[in-house]
Design brief:
Layout lengths: L1 E6 L13 E5 L4 E4 L5 H7 L9 E3 L5 H4 L2 H8 L3 H5 L4 E5 L3 H11 L11 E5 L5 E5 L2 E7 L7 E7 L4 E4 L8 H5 L5 E5 L14 H11 L3 E5 L10 H6 L6 E4 L5 E3 L3
Parallel strand pairs: 3-4, 4-5, 5-6, 10-11, 11-12, 12-13
Antiparallel strand pairs: 1-2, 1-14, 2-3, 7-8, 8-9, 9-10
Bound molecules: zinc ion (ZN) (2 copies).
Length: 257
């Protein structure tokens, strides 16, 4: 699999970090993990074939994770590439996803469900196994962040695995969920002294990483509080069991088989 970090930041405007969006590519498919307002311009800036996306995953309804979804649906129908498209685009997320799109669609009768290409909106239940694209199976897990927030575990046909926690408070269950994955993409919103319970700080993310023993970990969803922190030094204090990298916009990682 190949992961490209489109947005390593949060909802707080930052000169170098766009808000949450990640491009995930397998041998046969292209998936967007979260769709912030900056997701589409970031895909364009990275030269990615956004018009070939097979699926979009929405982890929860905070605007830094889904704020770009309805503008994407409202805009791409006018592009030549999407007018010609016959391939299905599936959008997955928690219960309430369809209603969210409908509410924005109804503001100006945008008809967001009405596209020149086939579109399917799929609301998933936590712990239900589903096929997100034809070569990737998925399971989601409820996280302590918002009422609907979900982490996701993906496995492709070569048995390569990734967990994307999205936003989450601390729970040891995430370590079980991500046990032994090839890549753990985990939020570490704050380096220390987190001001809210619904996010992780570095010590908690590192605890989960030590328990989960992934082959590779990337810390993301980084608030500006990280700006003046020496990342390598901070991480080294927590005995990392694998390579732990700091996400940055444009980071590209190939992992697994
Ligand atoms: Zn967020
Ligand atoms: Zn959030």
């Amino acid at each position: 699999m190949k992961l490209i970090v489109l947005g390593s930041g949060t909802t707080v405007p930052h000169p170098k970090r766009s808000s949450a969006a990640y491009w995930l590519e397998t041998a046969e498919s292209k998936i967007l993990l979260d769709c912030s307002a900056t997701a589409t311009p970031r895909m364009l800036a990275e030269g990615l074939p956004w018009y070939e996306l097979d699926a979009i995953w929405v982890s929860h309804f905070h605007i830094d994770h889904c704020g770009g979804l309805t503008p994407f649906l409202g805009g791409v129908r006018h592009s030549a590439a999407m007018k010609k498209r016959t391939k299905l685009l599936k959008i997955f997320g928690p219960a309430g996803l369809r209603d969210l799109i409908k509410k924005i669609s109804d503001v100006y009768d945008y008809k967001l469900f009405d596209q020149p290409f086939p579109l399917e909106i799929i609301e998933v239940e936590p712990l239900e196994e589903f096929e997100i694209v034809k070569d990737v199976s998925a399971v989601s897990m409820k996280t302590p962040h918002t009422d609907e927030s979900l982490a996701i575990h993906l496995r492709d046909s070569s048995d390569t695995t990734i967990v994307y926690t999205a936003d989450t408070g601390f729970t040891e269950t995430l370590a079980t969920f991500a046990r032994g994955v090839d890549l753990l993409l985990i939020e570490a919103s704050f380096p220390y002294d987190k001001p809210v319970q619904k996010h992780l700080e570095l010590a908690e993310a590192m605890f989960i990483i030590r328990k989960a023993q992934p082959k590779h970990a990337v810390l993301t969803h980084l608030y500006p509080e990280w700006d003046n922190v020496d990342f390598e030094k901070a991480v080294a204090k927590f005995s990392p069991p694998c390579v732990v990298r700091q996400a940055e916009d444009g980071l590209r990682i190939e992992f697994g088989k």
